[in-house]
Amino acid sequence: MLKCHWVRSFPVSVSLLIFLLLQGCANSDNNQLKLIKQKCGGCHSVDIVFKKKRDNDDWNRVIHGMKMRGLKLTEQEEKEVVGYLTKNYGK
């Protein structure tokens, strides 16, 4: 009987796990988008950031160029920004 109970609750457990993982990803994306708006939006409209699709190397070059112009990002913030832009605005 115990085994049957476990089998019936397994799909519910898997569904809950998937939901929680997706929520975590959505929250992470929201945090990264806020970071982009905060850091990039200080000098120009963030709309310009999202107009062109670039691959990972291109996004790294853009971020490097912005850092040369005064953008302040920690190493972790830079990884998050480039990761988000590559994932959502990559070629």
TrEMBL record:
Top-level taxon of the source organism: Bacteria
Name of the featured protein: Quinohemoprotein amine dehydrogenase alpha subunit haem binding domain-containing protein
Entry keyword set: Signal
Originating species: Calditerrivibrio nitroreducens (strain DSM 19672 / NBRC 101217 / Yu37-1)
Any one GO MF annotation of this record: electron transfer activity
Signal sequence extent: 1-28
SUPFAM superfamilies on file: Cytochrome c
UniProt cross-references to InterPro entries, sorted A to Z: Cyt_c-like_dom_sf (IPR036909)
